[in-house]
Amino acid sequence: MLRAGGQFQVVIGTRVEEAYDLVVAKTGLAGGVVDDPDAAAEDGQGGFLNTFMNTISGILVPTLGVLTAAGIVKGVVSFLTLENIGLLDPTSGLYMLLYAFGDGFFYFLPILLGFSAARKFGCNEYIGAGIGAALVYPSMVNIGQTMEVAGTLFAGTAFEMSYFNTFLGIPIVMPGAGYTSSVFPVILAVLLASKLEKWCKKTIAPNLRGILTPIITCVVSVVAAYLVIGPVLNLVCGVISIVVDFLFSIPVVGGLIAGGLLGGGFGVLVMFGLHWIIIGMALQLIAQNGFDYIMAAGGIGPMIGMFQGLAICWACRKNQKVRDLAIPATISQICGVGEPLMYSILIPIKKLFAINILGGCVGGAIIGALRTKMYMFGGSGLFGIFNYAGGGGMQDVIKYCVGVAAGGIFAIVATLIAYNDDEATKILG
């Protein structure tokens, strides 16, 4: 032990990780913050589904602010460079710098999620980031352009996948855009890494642990990600795409049904915290196909909430108690954060929540019927319009606005009819 400058330095040697883990366990410190033991206990309650939801939200939520900012920047830049807008030259320095942030964040998202997932799973954060970096390594992302197809799996089926190389005879399957912008492959790979890291720390001798643990953990996890985790998730995405395509392919009413279910059901999913699965799937499909139908319809929810919040603010203008809740909640809703309005007013006054669901159904059905596509997941609420800027024109922005207008008008009219000041005061007061 050394003492200098009023501080103590304890020299532990090769067993520093064991000492660190012991300090964390005794003090509740993890990643520079104090864990909430009650919250940690709750994570294990409620069965697999509840644990899964807590895990996905715990990984995605820390990135949400920057993810939203990057999405808005990318959407605005894409919107301003459209041929029929032409306000921003795609060869200009301004475009290059803004797009470097907007697109770069999503391109390297697996690295950031790898770091976040490692913190959630109690793994070395830089191991998680390293696994994410391996998944977006340019030579692997561009393997389809630099190598010839070596073979095809499931040829002639909806799950057909080409591979360009093998590892010990096992095909290395890559999606068209690689794993850039993907969500679940890196999360599952880091989950595996966290188990391997704990095993290595218990098994490997202390004097070899520092170097062998990250080597074994990273190599095995990256290989598993490319050979098993990624291909399996590609198959899952294929199944999802088949189901969505089937719904949309039903003659006349297919788009209405799919869009209505997605648009109306998303608010319910938010209430139970299940929306992170849908968001993760949408990000995965955008990374794989360049667009997504799921959140194209489901994303209408914040806009319906915005219109409904404005209607409530007008209807309760003489009721100070409700106004104190409605005005800040509506401002939050306009910015894309819907929980305040949902939990403070809509859910307590159940018929207003029912109207929110129906408004989402109306707007989502129209969005689905028009085959509207979402090209990125970024801003929400009023800023969500930029998510539909893509495909070489404004057609999907217009389709989205038509659906929003229909669902919004329904939500405003129905809310003004259903809202009762005395009832609201009784429920919320």
Task: Please characterize this protein's 3D structure.
The structure is a single chain. The chain is mostly helical. 67% of the residues lie in helices and 6% in strands. The chain contains 20 helices and seven strands. The protein has helices at residues 16-27, 37-43, 47-60, 64-80, 93-107, 109-121, 125-135, 138-141, 143-146, 184-203, 206-249, 254-271, 275-289, 294-298, 301-315, 320-334, 339-346, 350-369, 395-418, 421-428; strands at 2-4, 7-9, 29-30, 33-34, 151-153, 161-167, 170-173. A three-stranded antiparallel β-sheet has the order 5-6-7. Strands 1-2 form a two-stranded antiparallel sheet. A two-stranded antiparallel ribbon has the order 3-4. A hairpin with a 2-residue loop joins strand 3 (29-30) and strand 4. It is globular. The termini are far apart.
List the keywords.
429 residues, three-stranded antiparallel beta sheet, 20 helices, single chain, mainly alpha
Poorly predicted sequence stretches spanning 5 or more consecutive residues:
2-9, 31-44
Tell me what portion of residues adopts beta-strand conformation: 5-15%
Radius of gyration (CA) equals 24 Å
Report the average pLDDT across residues. Answer: 81
Computed structural class? mainly alpha
Strand order of the largest sheet: 5-6-7
How is the biggest beta sheet arranged?
3 strands, antiparallel
Extended strand count? 7
How much helicity do the residues have? 55-70%
Q: Alpha-carbon distance between the termini? A: 61 Å
Order of helices and strands: EEHEEHHHHHHHHEEEHHHHHHHHHHH
